[in-house]
Design a protein that fits this description.
By secondary structure, this protein is an alpha+beta fold. It contains 15 helices and seven strands. It comes from Oscillatoriales cyanobacterium SpSt-418.
Length: 348
Amino acid sequence: MQVQFKILRQVQGAAPTFQTYVLDVDPSSTILECLNRIKWEQDGTLAFRKNCRNTICGSCSMRINGRSALACKENVASELANFEAATHAQNGNSLPEITVAPMGNMPVIKDLVVDMQSFWDNLKAVDPYVSTAARQIPEREFLQTPAERARLNQTGNCILCGACYSECNAREVNPNFVGPHALAKAYRMVADTRDDRTETRLEQYNFSTDGVWGCTRCYYCNSVCPMEVAPMEQISKIKSEILDRKDAQASRSIRHRKVLINLVKQGGWIDERLFGLQVVGNSFRDLGGILSLAPLGVRMVTKRKFPGKFEASENTQQVRSLIDSVRAIEASGQVQEVVADTPEPVGG
């Protein structure tokens, strides 16, 4: 079958442009195989990264039909099945089309090759290796039980392909955010029983919006991860550890989570009148925070959007029971997730 590949070409300092190549391909061919054929048979100047061709090294990560993926993992048939209707509508029912572009959140060196220096720098910033401070006794072995080792399996699957970093909305708006890849590796260190820097690490990862509180919980990192590492879930686990150790006065980010859960537990959903006062105004302890809410409050009153009263949910008791049940399960150590970091309830 014939397929046209629309590839975004670019060199440093120049505007990107799409170039189209037509190939006779087998539907089972991977996108990487198709790129190889384009380079070998049609255009030797096309630049992209590759290595293992078997979803191990992570080198061939790029944006395929608008989302970051491994070119060696995705094939023509699946791409056309997922996106054929949309591409046909766009190109006037001509040949089926697959678009390929470089990863996001990183500057382009050439074509599909990006500069990953910030990716590696942010990984290094979280100290993603077990502390050697306790290894001063040379004859000691650092053994783990199967259960302790199993806690590291999911994050250990990360191949550092950059897909999650490429799609991270938080990174796009906050260049200081370290990224989901780094925080997923960070949780591996928190979970590793051989490491003796847990408290120091949690303080480091708790730092402002550069750390775990910078995550906007958009789920993109989870959706594009080719190895099912689920970076956002690992970030949530770090938040859980921090919330267990901190009270609401520690920071606005921590207060936000604790107030959210307390209000939901009280009324089944969020009382918007109290939420801002308790989080931003710190329950009238932060005069500057309260004053910062005044312009918004005035606009809401003027436009008649300020809620005059709060009506509790009909299922408040059920919500309260669910929260208590999850916390009880967490306390028993059966799960790692924490209800304090679930998305806000609908209807608040």
